[in-house]
Amino acid sequence: MIPFSDEDLKFPVNNLIKTKIAPMLASDGGDIILVDIIDGNIFVQLKGACIGCSASSSTLKFIVEKELKTHIHPDIRIINVPENMEHNLKDLL
User: Fold this and answer.
1) Which pairs with CB-CB distance under 8 Å and at least 24 residues apart come from 5-9?
2) Is the pLDDT reported for residue 1 higher than 80?
3) What is the mean pLDDT of residues 36-42?
4) Domains of the chain: residue spans and CATH
5) Which of 62, 70, 72, 77 is the most core-located residue (most Cβ within 10 A)?
6) What is the pTM of this model?
């Protein structure tokens, strides 16, 4: 169980995405945004060159998830939000 509220997680997660993760992805033409946090589940959406890239699942696992779990909390769950699913996040759980 994560000892933080979703609201408590928003700033540090968004900050880590903007300052560390997004610049890593930008070097290959990709990008990432924080869509929402619900019950400790971090919903992100890959953008740019990451969309449709065969390495996007590896990027999500070995860059995004690793950074967030290392710097925020090891029990958070990262969920990629496909295009046009932004309003149906609970369907992705």
Assistant:
1) 6/37, 6/38, 6/39, 6/40, 9/37, 9/40, 9/42, 9/72, 9/76
2) no
3) 95
4) 6-82 (3.30.300.130)
5) 72
6) 0.92
For 26, how many CA atoms within 13 A lie in the half-sphere containing its CB? 8
Q: Is 77 helix (H, G, I), strand (E, B) or coil?
A: strand
Query: How confident is the model over 41-84, as pLDDT tens digits?
Result: 999 999 988 888 888 899 999 999 999 999 999 999 999 999 99
- Return d(Cα 19, Cα 57) in angstroms, integer: 21
In 3-state terms, what secondary structure has residue 50?
coil
In the predicted model, what is the mean pLDDT of the chain? Answer: 93
Query: What are the helix and strand counts (H, E) for the chain?
Result: 4, 3
